[in-house]
Amino acid sequence: MLHAVLIISKAGGLVFNKDFGSGIARLTVNEYLVLAGTVHGVHAITAQISPVPGSSGLELLESDTLKMFCHQTQTGIKIVIITDAAHTGHDANCRRIYELYADYAMKNPFHTPEMPIRAELFDAGMAKLVRAINS
Amino acid sequence: MGTVVAPPAGRVVHFLQRTMWSYSSSLWAYHRNAAGQLSSGNTTVRGTRLLAELCLPDFALLSNARMSRPMTVGKRPPILDRNLNKTRGSEVSLSAFAFLFSEMLQYSQKRVSGIQDLEKKRVCAGAALSDLGYRVGVRMLELILFRERNAKRETRVLGVLYFINTTVWKSLFGKPADSLEKGTDNDDEYMISDNDPLITKYISVPREMSSLNCGAFIAGIVEAVLDGCQFPARITAHSTGSEQFPSRTTILIKFDKSVMLREKALDAGR
């Protein structure tokens, strides 16, 4: 079960967030902005403190009830998904979201990079994808 | 100290041009690979190969600095040397086109801003797009008629519309248009509709600009084809999206009076 999706720009700004799960407590927009900034910072720190050189940053944060998976792309955009603990296939899900981002945000002439994504087709594609994942 | 002999200026310029060109196109390939092309599994391989192919002249130039003749990229001859009749393998990547079209749209918008107010700007962005389409259409008509085996000059309205509906659409988008209808109100109006136009596949027009239809580009192409066939007409693009086909676009064709008169004369002469 996928609960929420966040897309963080390479500067650490939140460009997209959406809740999907029903019946769970939701964060406010401000809290999401703070969460995005925190994830961005922690990601950078984890890459620094790794004992093995050349390590990537934070990928999976796991607890009893949830998993938070962070996929960083070649261009520095982070796609973060929050799911329940039983969920699998996080990486594949993030890649599908990245695909939507590349198609419907980057190829949309009305989208400005680093700015919040406001595109109907992106929202529609995302809703369809999450429905497929959660069913 | 020995004197340093400067290489001929022309060669240096040429070298710089080649290097910069390779650099910018390999950068382009990288972006394409990194951001654009996740959809199919083997794209990484294809992207890498493309990257290598594009870097090739660069390396060749470094190892053989005396060479003055530009090398062709990979094995393919330059586009102007290829056979015009060959359609297989001449398809363009939709991603590359989407990025180009996106820039075209932004350019059209930028060009008209500052002179007109927002209301007019929308109309003008559409008009600028249709101008760009016109330039494509003029060339496409020539090319299609050249490639067509049994090409002829259409003299009747229905004939030329059918030609656009099938042949032109197929060579541009790989499929015929979804419907060709006659306007109910006026005799001189016809409509060609596409349920999911390829060029607007990735474009979401923001709500405050909803009167802008990117199909204006297709309208420009249709206008050029009709003009080229001696059927002057006024062409506009309209969004006619429904639940089932949200991005459906209708191209409205209103023929010139002279065309309708000629059509009547031809009907009478039968």
Topology of helices and strands:
The complex is a heterodimer of chains A (135) and B (270).
Chain A: E1 2-8, E2 14-19, H1 29-49, E3 60-62, E4 66-72, E5 78-84, H2 90-106, H3 120-134
Antiparallel strand pairs in A: 1-2, 1-5, 3-4, 4-5
Chain B: H1 9-36, H2 43-63, H3 94-112, H4 118-147, H5 157-173, E1 179-182, E2 189-194, H6 216-228, E3 233-239, E4 249-255, H7 257-268
Antiparallel strand pairs in B: 1-2, 2-4, 3-4
Main location (chain A): endoplasmic reticulum
Organism (chain A): Polyrhizophydium stewartii
Subcellular location (chain A): Endoplasmic reticulum; Golgi apparatus, cis-Golgi network; Golgi apparatus
Describe the 3D structure.
Chain A: Keywords: Endoplasmic reticulum, ER-Golgi transport, Golgi apparatus, Transport. Chain A: It comes from Polyrhizophydium stewartii. Chain A: It is found in: Endoplasmic reticulum; Golgi apparatus, cis-Golgi network; Golgi apparatus. Chain A: Part of the multisubunit transport protein particle (TRAPP) complex. Chain A: Belongs to the TRAPP small subunits family. TRAPPC4 subfamily. Chain B: Its main location: endoplasmic reticulum. The complex is a heterodimer of chains A (135) and B (270). In chain A, a hairpin with a 3-residue loop joins strand 3 and strand 4. In chain A, strands 2-1-5-4-3 form a five-stranded antiparallel sheet, with helices on both faces. Chain A has 135 residues and is α+β, with helices and mostly antiparallel strands. In chain A, helix 2 packs antiparallel against helix 3. Chain A has a single domain, classed as 2-Layer Sandwich (Beta-Lactamase). Chain A is globular. The mean pLDDT of chain A is 91. With 270 residues, chain B is of the alpha+beta class. Chain B folds into two domains: 69 residues; 175 residues, Trafficking protein particle complex subunit 3 (Muramoyl-pentapeptide Carboxypeptidase, domain 2, 2-Layer Sandwich). Helix content of chain B is 52%, strand content 9%. Chain B is built from seven helices and four strands. In chain B, strands 1-2-4-3 form a four-stranded antiparallel sheet. In chain B, helix 1 runs antiparallel to helix 2. The longest helix of chain B has 30 residues. The radius of gyration of chain B is 24 Å and the shape is globular. The N terminus of chain B is likely disordered. The chains are: A alpha+beta (135), B alpha+beta (270). The interface between A and B is medium-sized, with 20 and 23 residues.
